[in-house]
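Section 5.1 Outputs to date
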Amino acid sequence: MNQLYWQTIGQGDRDLVLLHGWGLNAEVWRYTAERLAPHFRLHLVDLPGYGRSQGFPAMSLQQMADVVLDAAPARAIWLGWSLGGLVASQAALSAPERVSRLITVASSPCFAAREAWPGIRPEVLQGFQQQLSEDFKRTVERFLALQTLGSDSARQDARHLKAIVLGQPLPTVEVLNGGLAILHDDDLRQAMCALSLPILRIYGALDGLVPRKIVPLLDALWPASQSVVIEKSAHAPFISHPDIFCQKIIDFCE
């Protein structure tokens, strides 16, 4: 039987569900969790097929959101990084009564570049898919290097991310390809206009995967949401700038 890895820690009286990005697992939140645990009851999740949540096949975005919703508290704050931001957003769209607030980190409702929309070029994502079948480990390492490129602590952050990935069971190529397909295909820009819950979007100014050019576009599309750009950070601002990051979360939720 497939079982979702789920760990609950913290002394706070509010539930905060934390969802990681493509290729990784809940260990990315370890340093962040230490800072947030006094304020929240944290739920650290390995997405289906990732880390310790083994046995799941490749899933659609809706299927992933449904699996996490089934295990989640009745009414929680949801925070998702990168691909996890899409999963958290889909959960809010599917069950808005279950999500009290939504926080996306270095995430986009539409990761792939489209007409008049900045994002990852489709050929880059297609290249990752091809390379996964040829050299699984090297492709994941290359993606991790991209996540930290540009920040002052890039080399240290990349080493940290690599240790996190290699310290837990790796997802199958099928699951990784399924995640890349979500990043390539899914577009929640218009659907999320209907959400009325509080939304905070956090970005890294130097992010090479989610360009800061999308910030004013989403400010205009979702005027009720809040956006924060953390200077000198890339795709993992919670690792490069944990104190600033955690304070933004605490301020938004109070």
